[in-house]
Amino acid sequence: MTTVPTEGAAERGSEGAPPAEAAAGPATTPAPAAPPPTSAASRRLAGRPAKPLVLLSGVTLVDQIDTNILRGVLPLIKDDFGLEDWQLGALGFAFVFVNALASVPAGWIADRVRRTRLIGWTLLSWSGLSLLSAVARSFTQLFGARASLGFGQAIDDPASTSLLADHYPAQVRGTVFSVQQVTTFIGAGLGIGLGGLVGGAFGWRWAFALVGVPGSLLAFAVFRMREPSRGEAEGISLPPPPAVPVRELAGSAWSGLRSDLKMIFGIRTMRFVLVGVSAMLFTVSGVGYWLAMYHKRYSGFTEAQAAGAAGLVLATAGVIGTIWGGRASDRVYGVSPAGRITQVSNAVITCLVLFCASLAVPWVPVRLLLQFVAVLAAASAIPGLRASMMDVTPVHARGVSVSAFALVSTVFGTALAPAVVGLISDVTGSLVTAFYVVTPPVIVGTLVLRRAKHTIVEDAAVILASLAEAAAENPDGERDDGVDVSF
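Predicted structure:
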């Protein structure tokens, strides 16, 4: 009978040492106290190898370049196909909507199979999917091609986040996720910039055709990466699920996924984070999608200059803000996990104030400077958000937690934002007016997000208690390794 192979053994080799032995003894519920402060030295990945972080950051980089190449060629596509602004916005909607639908089952699968293989095969598929955009001959075909790319990020993000959480412990996760998320901004900047440069020189089709190559090369390195056991960073090796027949797995998928999602949404901190971030991302994604077009219309730039300016702001400010935000997140975690929530919400408000101010400034250099600092502030919030999610999520359901985040933030945040901004721009005749209309959700989102600081310590303590119980039941870290996943 055909079986679905589950994750393989956590091989031991040059990539890292075995996980620390789990503490034996009866399980006790830890008090919801703040974690001990961490020194600068201990925060440097806590002695863990950097290779997993480097490879998985590369996955995010390739993903973001593929995603954002569209934003750099929007003016060219508009002229070639004669599209309205709402249609250009719909191209962004196509990607994020499919991404949201695919992310939930992808996260459930990532919690049950060998994640390195799952990511590797996804990378190999991106080249062909990118070519679909390059050969599109109509708006409908391009819409379908962009939608197909949504599957890629939906699959790799839950698996990558889960892997990083199992490779690196809580006290350094802010730094770890800052390094990974830096590549989000680098990839966005490179995608927009390359789109403008290659599209301006050779046409927008060539821009899509060239972005699929790096992912194929990276896939082979990811295939060889060590797969950690679930909970390894916490000092526990939880046994993986046993191999089951394909028919049985498919039959249990809906009930298992529904159960995991119910558990994730039952965590109070996760609810506050999901609602708050969704409202915030509605504005951030809507504005970010149209930033290059804004500079073409209001800053007197050409297509290439507008794409370059938007790409430079996103990439440079994003890198600086994300690195700083990750380190700051780990510092405040040394006082209390709630500090991460405060840091994130303050950063979002700073971004809102500065960006709104930039729209009212007539001097282009000052406008760019304000947008630079605004993006820097927004980027500093990202590592703390991801680290906070991992703090309150059970180790066996980290993939589903990332999927739940993607689903809620996409459906209620990013999916409609580009099209809504385009529609408001068409109706009012002003892209600036559209930007102002979509900013209030940020305020609402931040107020909801701040409520998480009152629940995160207690929710994190519950996770520690469950880990202590698992350690007591499995003191030797024994595991049934199952069979390596293959496709």
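Summary: Residues 51-228+263-473 form a domain with the Growth Hormone; Chain: A; fold (CATH 1.20.1250.20).
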